[in-house]
């Protein structure tokens, strides 16, 4: 179905562009991953771009949701964004850039975030105007290309930077509306992308175009569709060259063919990414420090918030440099190990797809180990960092099974998990989503999992076990607020039963005991306690003793959850 074209670049056009980009990258993700050989052949460029844009989409949608009102002027439709309660162009592009910045993944995603930020810097300086036309879009594309190049410590031609510059050059030669400028930028980028193998030897050896540039062409195609209503003809990704009469896909090794290894297996061992709150002067010093430590350095952002990406051998030193510069958080460290970035495709033996697997989101390292021992594929959700749907899709793929049972273990992840399951189903994976609201419900479900049963029977048994498990948690209030148990102050200990605050107190052990007594008053045979790192050491012994003395027929099991956010998780079956 054809997209309704937008005449101007306004808030609605930003929203449309982001949505179209995400869908296009979702379709092209595997294709782009397959041709990823530079700067590290880790096969995740398409995925990283998808996750980056997904974060941008979420931020834009949040801005629109915040501006939705019931008193919009009569007759005001979607085109009224920026008036009658809708967000302005500055609101929308600012959210897009911020969302991409905080969600940027990998080298390519970080550069894309800076491209979007560069566009936003131009589009937010247009005064009170709710939209811009072709000239404004031309300026935005130029500033995007320049700012992205400045963010990379050592720019290399034949990469996404080259493609972005070509798009801006082509757009400058056009005097017209947004549709004409977008078409010119897309065509310029497409031509430059096709020429990338001739500018970067590692691409020429592999017989592929630059993966990051391929992703940018996809995003620009979505921009064309935003303003014309129709997507341009898809760009054909070339396969590796045919040698000795044998055709093989990009990245696969053929006899007599030099295998594309940008780092020859001797590159830095780790990819380090983190968000950083710091001033400009501190970031200038940080760039110098990280440049000396490793390569593929990209630092994007501004106004006190930055996204830092670097490949290093000493991941600790890269993080310490961030600590010296300001406050790093959302730290992600990926090891380029065997079978990963520096292992050629020919050295990997394809794994047979399992019949069934369980994928679980877990809140701490201790639980991750427990779930893994139980045979589940785990996705770690650190406190305050819920996984995006793209990350869940990756976990579903990583399970490498025809049938997958998904345990989100968090009520807030319901819609995200549903979206991930739907995406995986389009890829031929049969997915059943069990709406577990806590990790202790997931433990109960995993305990009755039997891969030998029929899929539907297994799902019913796991759902029943999860539903029969009441859940609670003990945590500390971060701020004063109204709760179902009264007003709490920052620092109060809260006991939540089935998601609602039931107890407010000052002592962890006392609150935990009260919560446990209330849960067991309705009966139960097994108590599961998951102790967080920040809980008092004696709380588990105290609760075990209490159960043993007051509920003779109830068994207790205790697990160490690690850094799980809550002090204590409780399950009663």
Q: How helical, in percent, are the residues?
A: 40-55%
Largest sheet: 6 strands, mixed
Work out the oligomeric state of the chains in this entry.
Answer: single chain
Shape: elongated
Radius of gyration: 26 Å
Distance between the termini: 50 Å
Across the major sheet, the strand order is 15-14-11-18-16-17
Report the sheet-strand fraction: 15-25%
Care to count the β-strands?
Answer: 18
Number of helices: 18
Structural class: alpha+beta
Give unreliable regions as ranges. Answer: 70-84, 238-265, 337-350
Question: What does it look like?
Answer:
The protein contains 18 helices and 18 strands. The chain has helices spanning 11-34, 45-67, 89-103, 106-123, 134-151, 160-172, 178-194, 201-206, 211-228, 280-293, 315-325, 365-373, 389-398, 414-426, 439-447, 455-467, 508-520, 539-550; strands at 9-10, 131-132, 270-277, 294-302, 305-312, 327-335, 354-362, 377-380, 401-407, 430-433, 470-476, 481-483, 486-488, 493-497, 500-505, 526-532, 555-562, 568-572. Strands 15-14-11-18-16-17 form a 6-stranded mixed β-sheet, sandwiched between helices. A 4-stranded antiparallel β-sheet has the order 4-5-3-6, sandwiched between helices. Strands 8-7-9-10 form a 4-stranded parallel β-sheet. The longest helix has 24 residues, at 11-34.
Quick tags:
alpha+beta, 4-stranded antiparallel β-sheet, elongated, 573 residues, 45% helix, 6-stranded mixed β-sheet
């Amino acid at each position: 179905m054809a997209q309704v074209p937008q005449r101007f670049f306004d808030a609605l056009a930003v929203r449309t562009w982001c949505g179209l980009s995400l869908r296009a990258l979702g379709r092209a993700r595997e294709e782009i991953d397959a041709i990823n050989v530079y700067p590290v052949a880790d096969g995740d460029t398409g995925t990283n771009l998808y996750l980056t844009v997904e974060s941008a989409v979420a931020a834009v949608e949040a801005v629109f949701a915040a501006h939705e009102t019931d008193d919009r002027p009569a007759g005001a439709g979607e085109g009224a964004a920026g008036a009658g309660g809708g967000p302005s162009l500055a609101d929308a592009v600012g959210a897009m850039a911020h969302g991409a910045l905080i969600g940027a993944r990998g080298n390519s995603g970080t550069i894309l975030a800076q491209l979007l930020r560069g566009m936003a810097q131009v589009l937010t300086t247009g005064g009170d105007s709710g939209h811009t036309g072709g000239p404004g879009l031309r300026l935005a594309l130029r500033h995007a290309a320049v700012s992205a190049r400045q963010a990379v410590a050592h720019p290399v031609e034949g990469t996404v930077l080259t493609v972005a510059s070509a798009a801006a050059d082509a757009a400058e030669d056009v005097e017209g509306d947004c549709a004409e400028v977008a078409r010119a930028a897309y065509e310029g980028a497409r031509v430059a992308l096709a020429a990338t193998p001739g500018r970067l030897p590692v691409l020429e050896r592999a017989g592929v175009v630059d993966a990051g540039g391929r992703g940018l062409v996809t995003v620009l195609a979505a921009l064309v569709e935003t303003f014309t209503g129709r997507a341009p003809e898809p760009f054909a990704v070339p396969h590796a060259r045919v040698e000795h009469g044998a055709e093989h896909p990009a990245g696969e090794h053929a006899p007599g063919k030099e295998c594309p290894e940008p780092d020859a297996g001797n590159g830095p061992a780790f990819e380090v990414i983190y968000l950083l709150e710091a001033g400009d002067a501190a970031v200038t010093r940080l760039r110098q420090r990280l440049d000396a430590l490793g390569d593929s350095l990209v630092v994007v952002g501004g106004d006190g918030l930055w996204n830092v990406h670097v490949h290093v051998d000493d991941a600790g030193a890269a993080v310490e440099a961030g600590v010296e510069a300001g406050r790093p958080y959302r730290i992600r460290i990926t090891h380029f190990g065997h079978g990963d970035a520096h292992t050629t495709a020919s050295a990997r033996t394809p794994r047979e797809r399992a019949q069934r697997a369980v994928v679980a989101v877990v809140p701490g390292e201790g639980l991750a180990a427990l779930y893994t021992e139980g045979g589940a594929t785990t996705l770690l959700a650190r406190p305050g960092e819920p996984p995006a749907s793209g990350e869940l899709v990756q976990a579903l793929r990583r399970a490498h099974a025809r049938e997958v049972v998904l345990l989100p273990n968090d009520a807030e992840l319901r819609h995200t998990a549903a979206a991930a399951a739907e995406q995986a189903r389009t890829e031929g994976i049969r997915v059943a989503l069990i709406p577990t609201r806590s990790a202790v419900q997931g433990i109960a479900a995993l305990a009755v999992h039997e891969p030998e049963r029929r899929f539907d029977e297994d799902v019913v048994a796991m759902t029943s076990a999860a539903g029969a498990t009441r859940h609670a948690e003990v945590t500390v209030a971060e701020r004063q607020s109204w709760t179902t148990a009264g007003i709490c102050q920052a620092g109060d200990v809260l006991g939540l039963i089935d998601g609602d605050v039931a107890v407010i107190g000052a002592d962890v052990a006392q609150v935990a005991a009260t919560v446990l007594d209330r849960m067991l008053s309705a009966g139960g045979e097994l108590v599961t306690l998951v102790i967080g790192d920040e809980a008092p050491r004696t709380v588990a012994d105290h609760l075990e003793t209490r159960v043993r003395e007051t509920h003779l027929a109830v068994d207790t099991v205790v697990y160490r959850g690690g850094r799980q956010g809550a002090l204590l998780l409780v399950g009663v079956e």
